[in-house]
Amino acid sequence: VTLCVILAVIMQALDTTIANVALPYMQGSVSASADQINWVLTSYIVAAAIMTPPSGFLANRFGRKRVLMAAVVGFVVASVLCGVAQSLVQIVAFRLLQGFFGAALVPLGQSVLLDAYTAEERGSAMALFGVSVMVGPVLGPVIGGWLTDHYSWRWVFYINVPLGVLAFAGLSFFLTE
């Protein structure tokens, strides 16, 4: 459960910075100005900020496991849609969707880990969680730059597919409601 939660959190945290280095390539691909392409980053952050508070309500209403798994699936689908987007409007819309689903991953992941460990072990669990939250934004520009240079800017979004599949499979198998 811990590994699956950490994968989901890293996937979400990675996407806060991974697209930064690919912006000039996206800009040329969709013929956007510098001001317009910044909406790719802004839309994700705004959607995540708006949807973080309701994630607890949704988890109480529909179940933490269901909401967490739906968030992983939605995040991965939105990531693929970002990768196949052909216009600025599409990328911004799909990044909004990505932020919408990604917002629940961090708070619900943290609550899953808090419930999975005893009071004595929670410090270690939160240390692992903290590392996963910190690793994503640090590795994002490095991985994003490498993927953009060696493949295409679209791969900064496709990288979420294997992480999301592993996280979803593990959560569906190991996490109980």
Outline of this structure?
The chain is mostly helical. It has helices spanning 2-14, 23-30, 34-37, 39-62, 64-84, 88-102, 105-116, 122-150, 155-158, 160-174.
Helix/strand layout:
Layout: H1 2-14, H2 23-30, H3 34-37, H4 39-62, H5 64-84, H6 88-102, H7 105-116, H8 122-150, H9 155-158, H10 160-174
Task: Report on the architecture of this protein.
This protein is mainly alpha-helical. Helices cover 82% and strands 0% of the residues. The protein has helices spanning 2-14, 23-30, 34-37, 39-62, 64-84, 88-102, 105-116, 122-150, 155-158, 160-174. The protein is globular. The relative contact order is 0.23. The model has no long low-confidence stretch (mean pLDDT 92).
**What is the rounded distance between the termini?**
12 Å
Name the overall outline.
Answer: globular
How many separate helices? 10
Helical proportion, percent range = over 70%
Structural class: mainly alpha
Low-confidence stretches: none
